[in-house]
Amino acid sequence: MRTNIILNEELLREAQQYSSTKTRSALVEEALRILVQVRARERAAENYASRVRQVQQKLQNRQFRDSAAEILKRDRSRS
Question: pLDDT confidence of 14, banded at 50, 70, 90?
Answer without folding.
Answer: very high
